[in-house]
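Researcher: Re-running this chain for the archive, since the previous output was lost when a drive failed. Same request as before.
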Amino acid sequence: MNHKIQQLFDLNHKICLDCYYIVSEFMGDAEGFYYSAMDAMRRPDTVMFVATNNYGIQGFVMGRAVCIENSRIGKLEHLYVTRRAQRSGLGGRLLTEYTNWAIAQQLSRLQLLSRVTRQAFAFYEKHGFVRVGLGNAMQKTL
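Model: Regenerated structure tokens:
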């Protein structure tokens, strides 16, 4: 199924609620996501891309630019795809949009904390991320 990916500049209640339902498929604190996402989108350093089709939002990616040790990096905070759209390439397309945004912002690398699943680690490794340290942190040099 064709998905249209677009950057959001204003996160309204309806869109955030649709993303809330996607997050609730995978983790218990979807309510925490809702409020943190609404707050994050008020900051100029945050970006969000959503993928939609005829059924509505099927996935999204959210992150921000931060300065760490005199280096501007991208913090990938959320990437979720509905169960129905998984393994369709949509997650990779969303990650590519976020990566292209980070390159345009002249960020030096991307960092994330992945949920500890083999599937998540395999997905990010396939897209050029490497594990950092002993925990679930990963990064990709741009």
